[in-house]
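Lab manual, section 2.4: Encoding a predicted structure.

Procedure: take the sequence of the chain (200 residues), apply the prediction step described in section 2.3, and record the output as structure tokens. A sample record is shown.
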Amino acid sequence: MGKLIKVFFIIFLIVLFIAVVLFIAFLLMPKTPKAVKPYPEIMERGNTEAQYQLDLSYKLAGKDIDPNDAEAAALYREAAEQGDAEAQARLGLCYYKGEGVRQDHAEAVKWWTKAAGQGNVQAQFLLGLCYAKGEGVKRSYEKAAEWYRKAAEAGEVNAQLFLGLCYAKGEGVKQNDAEAAKWYRVAAEQGNAGAQYHLG
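Recorded output:
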């Protein structure tokens, strides 16, 4: 009788162990975000945050949206047209690179200008690059330096480096080695390798 009880007790422990393992495995399983399903309905009501976050939710749900896919660009456009600065900046990048839309530097500049006007520092920096290169706009080193300065003063490290280069070369601003070194130093303190190189 004692042996039978021991056998049942061992079986009970084995079953309990298996149940615990299965429960832990269930807890560790990746779950589909609950936010994915309602987003399209929210989007119909004009929620720009939902539109902007939808592609990220698809990624979390294992439904990757290809960055080259027109669907991603369409999502950015919907939010961008409602004034979302981050979406405007991303849509501008789609047009600049030709990802999901036909490449159009002028259209990129259009959306970056909207985003930059709302204080988006990446858009401000990228506008500076466009003006410096004459991509999508008439080349203007003065306007390039203006946009670099806006982004640099907001803490954008690449803009700080490029503003330093403007001062070093006298492009769009009066040549000033001290001012160039100042902006190199600011960028270098954030770990920018290019700025560190120019500081020597």
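Check your result against the sample. Confidence is low (pLDDT under 50) at residues 29-46, 56-65.
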